[in-house]
Amino acid sequence: MTTVQRRPANPKVNGNFNFISQLQKQFPDFVPPAIALIIFLVVWQLFSFTPNATLPGPIQVIQDTWTLIVYPFYDKGGTDKGLFWQIWGSLQRVAISYTLAAIVGIALGVLIGVNKTMSKALDPLFQLLRTVPPLAWVPISLAALRQNEPAALFVIFITAIWPILINTAVGVTQIPQDYNNVAKVLQLSRKDYFFNILIPAALPYIFTGLRIAIGLAWLAIIAAEIVMSGIVGIGFFIWDAYQNNNVSEVILALVYIGVVGLLLDKFMVWIQNKILPIEQK
């Protein structure tokens, strides 16, 4: 009778497997994207080894941009600044224009939501303007404002306002009729109706517009800064690196842009979860 002998398990393999299992238990949402990212970087690196490859691999990018990664806070004056200051300059523009877009967008959204005549009058104009790409606004804003900084702010504003405005208007029109009936029975004033009925009921729609708008605002500032020279910003940094044939710097900046965009979206989700009631989430 022949007996089958089992090979002893490799302790190193078991240790790695146990580590991954423990990591997945502790951080269930971390392991899948980490594995996907590793696979993407490996495939990218392999493609960079092909004879006709024109883009550097991740290892080459890190080697070429190591100084920028390690020293993000350097400042030599003018536009020669580290990536922290480039991103900070862009974020400041986004914050200013996005805040204005939120204020104007919510106000106009409420107005056309409660007034059917205003909605019919302004809806065709809004639908026309919202389809214009951010880059198309750049020459118009430069011609009208004559300076790069206010022109960049306007491009962000005009790009971010539409999802806020439209979603707010939809939210106002979707207020349940029962809420309006209760307001009539209680004879609420316009002020009480606005703060106790209209805004709370429309908040989920408003936050949907705000989340979409923050992403569009971040995209718009990159597009605006790329074609506007002489301003500190990550968009201008990309264009300047491309002009100097520093492809690795362009790729590094793209990574930073993606990370910042993700953090902005997560920040809006955090605010939404803090403000919205549980039943509206």
Topology:
Layout: H1 11-26, H2 31-48, H3 58-64, H4 66-70, H5 83-114, H6 116-129, H7 134-145, H8 148-173, H9 177-186, H10 190-226, H11 234-243, H12 247-275
Helix pairs in contact: 3-12, 5-6, 5-8, 5-10, 5-11, 7-8, 8-10, 10-11, 10-12, 11-12
Protein model, in words:
- By secondary structure, the chain is mainly α.
- Helix content is 77%, strand content 0%.
- It is built from twelve helices and no strands.
- It has helices at 11-26, 31-48, 58-64, 66-70, 83-114, 116-129, 134-145, 148-173, 177-186, 190-226, 234-243, 247-275.
- The termini are far apart.
- The mean pLDDT is 82.
Summarize, please:
The chain has 12 helices and no strands. It has helices at residues 11-26, 31-48, 58-64, 66-70, 83-114, 116-129, 134-145, 148-173, 177-186, 190-226, 234-243, 247-275.
Defining key terms:
12 helices; globular; 0% strand; 281 residues; mainly alpha; single chain
Share of residues in helices: over 70%
Low-confidence stretches: none
How does the major sheet shape up? Answer: none
Sheet-strand content, in percent, reads under 5%
What is the quaternary state of this protein? single chain
The secondary structure category is mainly alpha
What is the averaged pLDDT score?
82
Count of individual beta strands: 0
How much is the radius of gyration in Å?
A: 26 Å
Work out the helix count.
12
Helix and strand sequence: HHHHHHHHHHHH
N-to-C CA distance: 66 Å
| Overall geometric form | globular
